[in-house]
Amino acid sequence: MFDVKTVSLEWGGKTLTLETGRIARQADGAVLATYGETVVLCAVTAAKSVKEGQDFFPLTVHYQEKFSSAGRIPGGFFKRERGATEKETLTSRLIDRPVRPLFPEGFYNEINVIAQVMSYDGETEPDIVALIAASAALTISGVPFMGPIGAARVGYKDGEYLLNPSMAQVAEGRLDLVVAATHDAVMMVESEAKELTEEEMLGAVVFAHEESRKVIGAIIELAEKAAKDPWDIDLSDNTADLKADIKKLIGKDIAAAYKQTNKSVRSDALNAARAKVKAQYADADGQTLMTAIKLTKKLESEIVRTAILKDGQRIDGRSTTQVRPIEAMVGFLPRTHGSSLFTRGETQAICTTTLGTKDAEQMIDGLDGLSYSRFMLHYNFPPYSVGEVGRFGAPGRREVGHGKLAWRALNPVLPSKEDFPYTIRVLSDITESNGSSSMATVCGGCLSMMDAGVPIERPVSGIAMGLILEGDEFTVLSDILGDEDHLGDMDFKVAGTEAGITSLQMDIKVAGITEAIMKQALAQAKEGRAHILGEMTKALGSSRTELSAHAPRIETIQIDKSKIRDVIGTGGKVIREIVAETGAKVDIDDEGVIKISSSDVNQIEAAKKWIQGIVEEAEVGKIYNGKVVNIVDFGAFVNFMGGKDGLVHVSEMRNERVEKPTDVVSEGQEVKVKVLEIDNRGKVRLSMRVVDQETGEELEDTRPPREPREPRGDRGDRGDRRPRRDGDRGGRGGDRNRGPRRDRDEGREGGDPNHMPAFLKSDD
Description:
Layout (H helix, E strand, L loop, with lengths): L4 E7 L2 E7 L8 E7 L2 E9 L12 E7 L20 H14 L11 E9 L6 H16 L8 E8 L2 E4 L3 H6 L2 E7 L4 E11 L1 H29 L13 H18 L5 H18 L5 H26 L14 E5 L7 E7 L2 E10 L5 E5 L2 E5 L1 E6 L16 H14 L12 E10 L4 H16 L8 E10 L2 E6 L3 H6 L2 E8 L2 E9 L6 H25 L13 E6 L5 H5 L4 H10 L2 E4 L4 E6 L2 H15 L7 E10 L2 E6 L3 E6 L20 E9 L5 E4 L77
Parallel strand pairs: 5-6, 16-17, 27-29
Antiparallel strand pairs: 1-2, 2-3, 3-4, 4-6, 7-8, 7-9, 9-10, 10-21, 11-12, 12-13, 13-17, 14-15, 18-19, 18-20, 20-21, 22-24, 23-24, 25-26, 25-28, 26-27, 28-29
Organism: Caenibius tardaugens NBRC 16725
Cofactor: Mg(2+)
GO biological process, one term: RNA processing
């Protein structure tokens, strides 16, 4: 029934299997990729015709993680997979970026790529498997895909590169790198690193490329068995005459426009030239007009590229290595915890940092279960930043991707949770954009964290590099403009500290770049990053030592695990009381780590003292502040150290005779007490009379010591136990009326009302 074709490859210590012919047979191409026990199904469908008037390539990639693949039910109210999560969005982009450039120019048929995680083993990240499955499905579908591509993840630990490391190995190492490549050249790079050198990073990319070639071989083998017939499409270019006419009409206008260094002036000049073309062909048929508009864009590209490649002349007059003027400010906004305004040329970002407590962490419900992130970076790109009218609302895929790139650049330099127990949110609002707003976010975000007092290890700067490639000739551009990005061949973004690279991302529009180009781009980026870092230092050279007055303070204390239940109390009664009384927020974990937070230092100190009073042991001879909580005939019970009670006997209230405890104290009164004794049952005897109630200083005890009592003699045999209440009471009779109550002082030594009950005496 099924004509199943499979290929297998031993790769990185596991078996990679690609299968087709069993599942999703109505799709143009469908591949089930298995690596370890992680399984991804990718299906490709393509429209057989192009919509009328369409002049772009509508490729859509969807990546979805099924919770059932990990044996989980989705959290939240709706128990099913819903809108794309951040990870699913980023993985969709990860597949789209290297695939899109490998379709021929002029191919406008709509293509849909859907990759779904069907099984997840908890070790093998599905993104690489999904990328490989997508490449294989496209290769066997028959669409004009100039692949296949392979992909690999690389880690770096103890000087060794690791192929497809587990998540634990990535966390322990210094690198998390994903590379997609054809057999001859690298197509896409995405990474987070812990300050790797340029040589180490380049070595990782080369290592990943070599391993990717093995996957490409397996995909070709599968295609030889199962590929469908290639589509018969006509992409011949018969527009040479039309292109020549357009060049004659507006060629000089475009060349003059691109000599304008101001973006607005340049845009106006270009729009005027484009309007000439539309007016010239207004009476032509729709197809001719659409072709003329496309050829105008192509002419713009050729003029810009030729000027850069042949003459070294960039749009704004800079050299190929020159960075635009930079202005950086911190403390830009008065009420935020940290803020910065970073401007580079016509690209500008307002970045703010907000510090929060543990309950502000981002909860992530994924295949590995619930996890929490203490560092968030959110990027916004409003339409006014490029002088346009457009949609303003929820972030799209581009915003999510740019934010994650900046997150990867800054995450490696953050302090540990133990050293800085705050949740950190960086917000980047792009207010102007003309090239590399994501790198402006890195620079501005770093400055805002430093302004907020986040003790980062070293400042991070970022730069975007471009490429003009014609045959064997190429030019690498530092700090590219928006037009150089659109009309060039590469977007190569590098971020890092003076010690090394923290993030590298590369996207290209041609069929790959070589090791030589990457080497030059990395070297040129290093110089640019150093220059930008110097400009950032003029605004703020290191993190502030004090937090903003508006930021919450967090103090951490460690208690013994056996005391956790005492701090929490039955049903959380004690910890709720601490929070209610002090106003501070208190979090405690299973290891006994307590975090006390508040914007008011006094509230933190009050909660801290309360907790310490619960967990600490009282010391004999030490003076404490306390509160009277109960008054009895023979004294008053005082709460001290937050969670301990002791008795101040009436004889220990004053040096002179006290008739009644209420003559000296009242409930709720604040008093100062000294611990006299703690018996073997934990009962505490306190004294007020030996402490100055105003200053808290200990007073000299002028009362003569009490003479010791005579020891009691042998009581002999006390006979049988007392009879039950409803029985004979040993001569006392059943009458409960025992006669008049004896005076309290009767039978006491000297009739002293201050005499201490025997049950409060020590065993001595």
